[in-house]
Specification:
The protein has helices at about 5-10, 35-40, 50-65, 85-90, 105-115, 120-125, 135-145, 160-170, 180-195, 205-220, 235-250, 265-270, 295-300, 315-325, 335-350, 370-380, 395-405, 435-445, 460-465, 490-500, 535-540, 555-560; strands spanning about 80, 90-95, 125-130, 150-155, 170-175, 195-200, 230, 255-260, 305-310, 355-360, 385-390, 410-415, 420-430, 450-455, 480-485, 505-510, 520-525, 545-550. With about 550 residues, it is an alpha/beta fold. The chain binds pyridoxal-5'-phosphate (PLP). Pyridoxal-5'-phosphate (PLP) binds near residues 334 and 335. Homotetramer.
């Protein structure tokens, strides 16, 4: 757990001195909000400028929160007790139920406040955002409520379910580009053409003020003992608003940011003392997959947040289940993030008897993330095609097969050498419901000359065969077997294949989409003698983590 930042350093410690100087100053005698800053720091000149600036910013933010217009679109959500968790963890745990907002996340607060404050001329022209997530839905609802035209630009690969959710709220969806950056660029083009106003997801003071109303409600709903509030962090809009309000009124309450460990941009920024851009961002918790903390949020929160805790995918998943057990709500992974941090805090500090608040910040989960259920639901809704394809067993043919599948989401991949001439592939591909899309994939594969069996309705294949690696090949051959972690993003498999020398033959391949940020892949390769000693050098160059498994007993027993 990283201890970073610290509002107390710059302001005051409850019952202590000016933490920055390690001695008492006048600040300790007064609630700082009642005093002009120069008076606070007559004994602390070194920080007078910094503190006065920060204090002004804090007071401005709190005023904006108090004046925020959110309740025309959002509701005051309950702060629900979590009796099972509280008993289990020996602390009083309260969950702020932002999943109960009309768009199932808090994002409508900031979007509505920002839009309500636009001029009539701006409203008349309409608003725009590039987003495939909760911001898009919040914006769409806010726009409809205010009678403003809203345009949302999303990458073309955005799941249909999200596109439909935004359209259903009356916004116009424009699908553009494969990457999010292309969607963002296109939004700028549309702004230049049509004069729309851009509504940022977090990097804006009015958005922050809207999100800050969550903090305002928490303090109102729990006027008694309150030890810490755990807040999920993406771009920092939510935590900046909450921290400003809470630290202004109840500075003794800890505000603890929680980040997914593969998108910990606030932790990185606080450690570096400035905003940094993360090289890679895991997308498992989509809502918080942000590479750089927002400028406006960082300016507000950098001196206010007590601590940042990072959690991994498994911890988030466990928290989804915990929330379900106490409330029957199915939160998205970002929605359960702050509870995962809260649990880790208790584990690491041994806290007991404290009152701790976490925020279920959203419930817009993709159902297919709930693995077991998803496996069957996907098929039940005809959103997954299960195919057996036979391809020629020669270098390059696996790559060609991947090209035909294209950028569709692959849910499963088993590749096994069959004989000198052929290899069998068992593949799960996400398709649009209705059957046409599945027929299209099959047609493309058959047109390329591959025999295809459609196993989508075959119970044996779905229940058993899919989890088996493909069995032993008929002839013995030398095979190197490695296990990899691939980042879960379009093109990762192609990148891997492109980096391997063309004369290495892939003889085994097993991949299963676990709905996690990293896909686990097992690969068998026939490596020419001359390359044997250098196999791992090639893998180092690709940059994915790997483990040699050629001598693993499970492989020896069942696959060799
Ligand atoms: C469910 C959920 N939780 C948390 C966050 C993080 O909010 P912020 O970007 O303001 O830090 C988001 C952002 O979209 C979200 O959708």
């Amino acid at each position: 757990m990283a201890l970073v930042g610290g509002w107390r350093r710059h302001y005051r410690r409850a019952g202590g001195g000016c933490g920055w100087h390690g001695r008492r100053c006048q600040l300790d005698e007064f609630p700082f909000s009642l005093l002009p800053i120069d008076v606070h720091h007559s004994g602390c000149k070194a920080h007078a400028t910094r503190d006065s600036q920060e204090t002004r910013m804090l007071e401005d933010t709190v005023k904006k929160i108090l004046q925020a217009r959110v309740y025309e679109a959002a509701r005051e959500t309950p702060l629900s007790p979590a009796p099972f968790l509280s008993r289990r963890l020996d602390n009083q745990i309260l969950i702020k139920r932002e999943d109960l907002q009309p768009v199932f996340s808090f994002k409508v607060r900031g979007a509505y406040n920002k839009m309500a404050l636009l001029s009539d001329a701006q409203k008349a022209k309409g608003v725009i955002a590039a987003s495939a997530g909760n911001h898009a839905q919040g914006l769409a609802l806010a726009a409809r409520q205010l009678g403003v035209k809203a345009v949302i630009v999303m990458p073309r690969i955005t799941p249909e379910i999200k596109v439909q959710a935004v359209r259903a709220r009356g916004a116009k969806v424009v699908l553009k580009g494969d990457a999010f950056s292309e969607a963002q660029e296109h939004a700028q083009t549309l702004i230049a053409e049509h004069g729309y106003t851009y509504i940022p997801p977090f990097d804006d003071i009015d958005v922050i003020a809207g999100q800050g109303t969550v903090g305002m409600e928490i303090l109102r709903q729990n006027a008694g003992r309150l030890d810490a509030i755990f807040v999920p962090v993406g771009g920092g809009g939510l935590i900046a608003g909450i921290a400003a309000y809470v630290k202004y009124l109840r500075p003794e309450v800890k505000v603890i940011g929680v980040e997914s460990e593969d998108s910990a941009c606030l932790k990185a920024a606080l450690e570096a003392g400035e905003r940094v851009v993360l090289d890679q961002v895991g997308v498992f918790a989509e809502g918080v997959a942000v590479a750089q903390i927002g400028e406006a949020p960082f300016a507000i929160l950098r001196g206010l947040v007590d601590e940042v805790i990072t959690v991994n995918t498994d911890e988030m998943c466990a928290a989804v289940k915990d929330i379900f057990e106490d409330t029957r709500a199915v939160s998205e992974t970002s929605g359960a993030l702050s509870l995962a941090g809260l649990k880790k805090y208790i584990q690491q500090t041994g806290a007991s008897g404290e009152t701790l608040v976490c925020i279920n910040s959203g419930a817009n989960t993709n159902f297919d993330r709930l693995q077991h259920i998803a496996e069957r639901t996907e098929l039940g809704e005809q959103r997954e095609a299960i195919l057996a394809v036979t391809i020629p067993e020669r270098p390059g043919s696996f790559k060609k097969f991947c090209r035909i599948i294209g950028k569709r989401m692959v849910t499963e991949f088993n590749y096994r050498y069959a004989d000198l001439e052929h290899a069998h592939i068992f593949v799960g591909v996400q398709v649009k419901p209705g059957g046409d899309d599945r027929a299209e994939v099959i047609r493309k594969l058959r047109d390329a000359g591959y025999p295809v069996e459609d196993l989508t309705d075959n119970e044996l294949a779905k229940l058993h065969i899919r989890h088996l690696g493909g069995g032993r090949p008929k002839e013995h051959f030398e095979e190197e077997v490695y296990r990899f972690e691939f980042p879960e993003r379009p093109g990762a498999l192609m990148n891997f294949l492109t980096h391997l020398p063309a004369d290495w033959n892939i003889s085994l391949f097993h991949y299963r989409n676990h709905g996690a940020a990293y896909g686990r892949v097992l690969v068998g390769m026939q490596v020419p003698n001359g390359d044997r000693a250098h196999v791992e050098e090639y893998f180092e160059r690709i940059g994915y983590r790997f483990w040699k498994e050629t001598d693993n007993v499970a492989y020896r027993l069942f696959m060799e």
